[in-house]
Amino acid sequence: MLSLVNQADHSKPFQSTDIIHKVCNELNLSIGYASKIFRESYSMSPKAYLSRVKQQIAQNLLLKPQYSISDISSLLGYKNAGNFSRQFKIWTGYSPNQFRSKDANYFLDKKLFSENFITYNDDPTNDVYRSFDN
């Protein structure tokens, strides 16, 4: 199923039900039976799985400043940015703007730290110092 998500036309909105129907049609299975098999294998429904995929895509796109929150919400199939923002806060506990600021600060702090300090390698058998990024 993830390969179908990856192959999707990213210029069109991401619709969970469209993907589930397409997978079921390709496998020649009813939606109910396919959902049962999926739930037994992954301990979640196909919709819950695709919601996680949407969350990961949203988080990755929010790290790219060239995408507005409105662009991301449209791409993920939300009718408006408010619905996307509400769902994103349910997923992460942060609004999209808060997440963008928090992660931008984290990566900036990590880069500054690795440029200015050496941290000890966590392996107790190895006395080699390493940078923060390694």
Molecular structure report:
This protein is an all-alpha fold and 134 residues long. Helix 5 (69-75) crosses helix 6 (81-92). A two-stranded antiparallel ribbon has the order 1-2. The chain has helices spanning 2-7, 16-27, 31-42, 46-62, 69-75, 81-92, 96-116, and strands spanning 119-120, 129-130.
**Rg on CA atoms, Å:** 20 Å
- The best one-word shape is elongated
Mean pLDDT: 76
Q: Please, how many helices?
A: 7
Please describe the biggest sheet, giving its number of strands, its sense, and whether it closes into a barrel.
2 strands, antiparallel
H and E order: HHHHHHHEE
Helix share bin: 55-70%
SS-based structural class? Answer: mainly alpha
Low-confidence stretches: 1-11, 126-134
Kindly report how far apart the N and C termini lie.
33 Å
- Give the total of beta strands: 2
Bin the strand percentage: under 5%
* Spatial order of the strands forming the largest sheet: 1-2
Which key features would you list for this structure?
single chain, mainly alpha, 3% strand, disordered N terminus
Question: What's a quick, concise take on this entry?
Answer:
With 134 residues, the chain is mostly helical. The chain is 65% helix and 3% strand.
